[in-house]
Predict the structure of Phytoene desaturase family protein.
Amino acid sequence: MSDASAGQVPLSRVVVVGAGLGGLAVAVRLAHAGHDVTVLEQAPQPGGKLGRYARGGFGFDTGPSLLTLPSVYEELFAATGEPLSRVVDLVSVDPAFRYRFGDGTVLDLPNADPTRIAAAMDAALGAGTGAQWTAFSERAEAIWEATRGPFLESPLDGPRTLLREARKVDDLVRIAPWRSLRALGRRYLKDPRLRVLLDRYATYTGSDPRRAPAALATVPFVEQRYGAWYVRGGLQRLADALAQRALECGATIRTGADVAEVLVKDVPGPRGWRAHGVRLRDGTKVEADVVVSNADAAHLYHELLAGPPGELGRQRLRKADPSLSGFVLLLALEGRTPDLQHHTVLFPRDYDDEFDSVFGTGRHRGRCRPAPDPTVYVSAPDDPALRPDDGCEAWFVLVNAPRHRPGEPARGVDWRAEGLADTYADRVLDVMAERGLDVRDRVRWRVVRTPADLEYATRSVGGSIYGSSSNGARSAFLRPANASNIEGLYLVGGSAHPGGGIPLVGMSARIVADLVGPPVAPEPEREDDALV
């Protein structure tokens, strides 16, 4: 519900803290609606986790490497100016992924074609596996239809939302909030490699498939129904396009503007506080009628709202399980790799050991560690814009990793420990070689980025990629709401509802823009008022 519908008069000065995709998308919507919008970004450039690294003619996306459900951004651009297709070049990625399983089996997964997907599974994994995945996808589609409008595209108000919005018992049965993603997979998928494939999609939300809810079945469904897409020149160009659209709509974007505090004042009413602007690290105050935080929710409630106003948010975060982080190698390689796909995923033999290592659970309870035999994800777009010439390649390599938590072994590891980053980088390259992608003698140079680096660059606490994970049946309701307990303060982006990932962040921006509502001009001054 917007302030207008609550009987308040929304004013037009809006400060957006953070220029990640969520902050940029909400800035576009609010500026287009007529608000006076200022975006404050502590980094030298917009984009947040959707970053770019360039050196010696090589270019790398340093965050997401594919776009799913592009309709979220197509709608945004169409509603505010030139369509998305005019400002970025979207390319279908086909095959979407090459998977190599622990037993050496290789599956090239076609893009956005259920019939071809089933046929490819039958050919690579054995007759009947395609039918298993098709049956699972039909269940995932039913979950998508039951959840998209009420949950992903609307504000969430605790577990009662589930009961209010599930219009019939069949909806609750389809969503199966009491069942984990892995448990749902076991019901449909008899081939263990298909279950491994499904488990990977829990990591799209920084989660453990053994604890993440069955509703995450919608992630592979959306990817395989609506396609995997790449932005020519790198996905960071989507952030560039959003920043440009925000400027065209009248917003101001200030980089190098490090917000140190959200300013809050006491007001009468049930909430008791109202946001009225922010203070920058240099002491500058920026007054506002609405503050939208695109900062990591933990950073917001622990550091930007350190006093009593942030206590409720801190209490809720303590109940949630933080998301995993990522360990990244940027590899500038000599030569070309025969039959290289855009995306390659190299699975281990023991996926559970990886999850136990990263989250400090199971056999590694109480002590997180870098997984010695991790899943390795390689993004290697065949894009001339990302390499100095045709005789080399630029690879982004990612493995799941525990968060950066020095002195807290149950919650993460100290990624600043001497020698750890380079030693683990060597281990990742060795694992790749063991699984058929040996590039060790082709590395011209490499850049290593740990969860500690991610924390420093984006202010995401511990380097959590998605803020909170989806671990647990109540996880969706523990994720910070878009409307905070403080009047005039809203949350947007991957650490808030409905979650992380490029499409969900775009949905988050639309939710927040609707909550803020349009600016309303103050009533004209009356003649008798002017005489007082």
